[in-house]
Specification:
single chain, 208 residues, alpha+beta, Glutaredoxin, Glutathione S-transferase Yfyf (Class Pi), Chain A, domain 2, 2 domains, 4-stranded mixed β-sheet, 8 helices, 4 strands, 57% helix, binds glutathione
Length: 208
């Protein structure tokens, strides 16, 4: 049984979504990132103290996109991951990583500044710089959606799990305005049964 250490709105949702799409059994362990006392069992899994992490037998991993690639590699093949010879592969690979490295990572700067920084430091230079970077990078998503319904082309893949999470994070928690094409895309991807199941299970998961 695969254990996903996560939170209701954390990137663990990407992992649970993929597991649901692939029909693999898993359990979710909730971690309260704001708890004053850290659970030693959680810190033993990830001393870096960031979500998500998975345990799969002897395997312990962090980094949501690396985890998606691990699960598809180990338990695939799956249509969620185009093969390297597939014409969809380059776009798939690019957007799989853009969703985290290019978008969600940078979104965290205005997000945490807005919630956690002292009042006088909320509107800081780094947060504004990161916001502008994200706005420019979203142009790549917009250009893609003008040409195709999904990031890799005409079918849903793990790149959509990656990018959808970032769009949702940015819109819900960091004040990024999605254009109509992005809104329709997000509605399309998150209407999938697998996403809805992953969301419900992440919300219902007991504390770690
Ligand atoms: N690149 C990492 C980002 C992980 C990350 O920033 N996780 C957030 C929650 S979604 C977190 O744990 N933040 C708290 C912290 O880093 O202290 C991934 O994709 O897994």
């Amino acid at each position: 049984m695969i254990t996903v250490w996560g939170g209701q709105t954390s990137r663990s949702l990407r992992v649970a979504w993929l597991l649901e799409e692939m029909g693999l059994p898993y359990q979710v362990r909730q971690v309260d990132m704001l708890a004053p006392e850290k659970d030693p069992a959680w810190l033993a899994v990830n001393p870096g103290d960031f979500l998500p992490a998975i345990q799969d037998g002897e395997v312990t991993m962090v980094e949501s996109i690396a985890i998606l690639e691990y699960l598809m590699g180990r338990y695939g093949p799956t249509p969620l991951q185009p093969a390297p010879g597939d014409p969809a592969f380059p776009a798939y690979q690019q957007f799989l990583h853009l969703g985290e490295a290019g978008l969600a990572t940078l979104m965290m700067v205005p997000l945490v500044s807005g919630f956690l920084a002292p009042q006088a430091e909320r509107d800081n230079w780094s947060a504004r710089w990161a916001r502008e970077c994200v706005e420019r990078r979203l142009l790549l998503v917009r250009r893609r959606l003008a040409a195709a319904p999904y990031m890799a082309g005409d079918r849903f893949t793990a790149a959509d799990i990656s990018v959808s999470y970032a769009l949702r994070l940015g819109a819900a928690h960091a004040g990024f305005a999605l254009d109509p094409a992005e809104q329709a895309y997000l509605a399309r991807t998150t209407a999938r049964d697998a996403y809805q199941r992953a969301l419900a299970r992440s919300q219902l998961a007991p504390p770690a």
